[in-house]
Amino acid sequence: MFTGIITHLGKVAEKTESRLTVESDPDFIKKLNLGASVAVNGICLTVVSQGKNSFEIDFMPETLERTNIKYLRKGSFVNLELSATIKTLFSGHFVQGHVDAVTKIVNIGKKGNSRIFAFSIPRGLSKYIVEKGSIAVSGVSLTVLGLSSEKFFVGIIPHTWEKTTFHRTKVGDWVNIEVDVFAKYVEKLLHCKN
Fold first, then answer.
1. What ranges make up the beta strands (E) of 35-133?
2. Which pLDDT score is estimated for 131?
3. Judging by DSSP bridges, how do beta strands 140-147 and 134-137 pair with one another?
């Protein structure tokens, strides 16, 4: 379980067909343990090895197919978050790290002090995205500003712009999307016949 509040950035040092090596701040690395969960671009992954300046995670074919890991390469930057604990200040929303789909950035605009990002809505997810609702984009907890039949919009304040990978993105880049899990539970309960 995560909150979607990104604390560090990482950089892909190596990628194989099933393993990712990520470099990051030693202060972040030392908080990890073997077998611990860590969110990499919003994907809940397990630490299988760590050094002073890097850690490694394994990923399975399902993760490769469903997330933007397939687009990462050596030198790519990623958002990082430690898993939540009982002492974690909960200031984002419940993020499981179970990515629903990838989608593209279709527009980046500026309004006042913020950037307004538009993303295409992946097939089947529109019903879970609501105005003023929560959504995780590459692990970042965000509020949906608005949506159309094909796109949804979020605002990125200067702090989030600087502290996440958003300041390195461009139109056409692929991002991970995780919709609010509570919407899925409500849907299941409403359609449950038992």
1. 37-40, 43-50, 54-58, 77-82, 101-111, 114-120
2. 94
3. antiparallel
In this prediction, residue 193 carries a pLDDT of 66
**Residue 84: predicted pLDDT:** 72
Ordered mean pLDDT values, 10 residues apiece, the chain (194 residues): 90 97 96 95 96 96 95 97 73 81 97 97 93 95 94 96 97 96 72 69
Residue pair 97/6 in contact (Cβ under 8 Å)? The answer is: no
Across 74-111, b (16+ Cβ under 10 Å) vs e yields eebbbbbbbebeeeeeeebbbbebebbbbbebeeeeee
DSSP state letter for 30: T
Phi-psi region of 42 (alpha: psi -120 to 50; beta: other; left: phi over 0): left
Domains and CATH numbers, the chain: 8-82 (2.40.30.20), 101-191 (2.40.30.20)
Sequence letter at residue 106: V
Cα angle, residue 185 at apex, residues 180 and 189 outer, rounded to 5°: 150
The pLDDT, as a whole number, for residue 75 is 97
pLDDT at 93: 73
| Separation of alpha carbons 174 and 71, rounded Å | 8
Q: Where are the alpha helices (DSSP H) in 4-147?
A: 26-29, 61-66
Give me the pLDDT at residue 8, please.
95
Contact between 85 and 191 under an 8 Å Cβ cutoff? The reply is no
